[in-house]
Amino acid sequence: MNSSRKTAIIVGVLFITATVAYSLGDFLFNPILRGSDYLTNASENENKVILGAFLVLIDSVAVAGIGVVIYPILKKHNEALALGYAGARIAEGILFTVNVIIILTLLTLSQEFVIAGAPDVFYYQTLGTLLLVAGDWSFLFGFGLAFTLSALILNFVLYQSKLIPRWLSVWGLVGAALLWVYYSLQPLSINIVDILFLPIAVQEMVFAVWLIVKGFNPSAIASPSAKTDINKV
Q1: Distance CA 32, CA 10 (A)
Q2: What residue spans define the domains of the chain?
Q3: Nearest 10 degrees: CA dihedral of 220, 83, 214, 172?
Q4: What would the pLDDT profile of 143-194 be if each residue is shown by its tens digit?
Q5: With a cut of 70, which residues of the chain have pLDDT below it?
Q6: CB 179 within 8 A of CB 151
Q7: What is the dihedral of CA 90, 94, 100, 105, to 10 degrees?
Q8: How many Cβ atoms sit within 10 Å of the Cβ of residue 115?
Q9: How many Å apart are CA 110 and CA 6, to the nearest integer?
Q10: pTM, 2 dp
Q11: pLDDT at residue 118 in the model
């Protein structure tokens, strides 16, 4: 098995790992932290919140890993965009790590709230609200900006290089563009149906399976090195 084939499998596995880990983590803690009694509920569901935060941390490592592992492949076709992709994915991983810290801080606040017997509900609710808002902003920048930008860069390079079938990279470009529209309108309090998430979510899983089963296009992998050899002659 050559290095590009191994890279394709690793990247595919990381994509699936990131998606599954975040989805499970969000499923565990989001209902707890979004309820009206989140300060009490978080303390009562400590294990769920911690496990959910841990899963999001796995997602953070996985998305950063994608950018690092695929960089040598993309670099052969567009070094600047390859670096931009790696940087965006690392930034996404950092922002989601910040989100994990905020979640665990909110858990600590909820425990203090229960221990104190709520002598000053307004104080704890104010801090809790600030933490929730900070978490929302870290998610918005991490997913709405860093992830969307990385998806646009990745699928543009994949389209140019023909490393995967162009229909798959075009699908990714359209999905990323729809997600960009969705998040661009969020600060304006304009709500759009969540179905705009679906195209890029499904495309990423199809892309991941394609990499694991088929890998990158061998001729597209070979073409940059072949051009370099010709130029040297």
Answers
A1: 33
A2: 3-216
A3: -100
A4: 888 999 999 999 999 999 999 999 999 999 999 999 888 877 766 666 666 6
A5: 1, 118-119, 186-194, 223-233
A6: yes
A7: 180
A8: 9
A9: 45
A10: 0.88
A11: 61
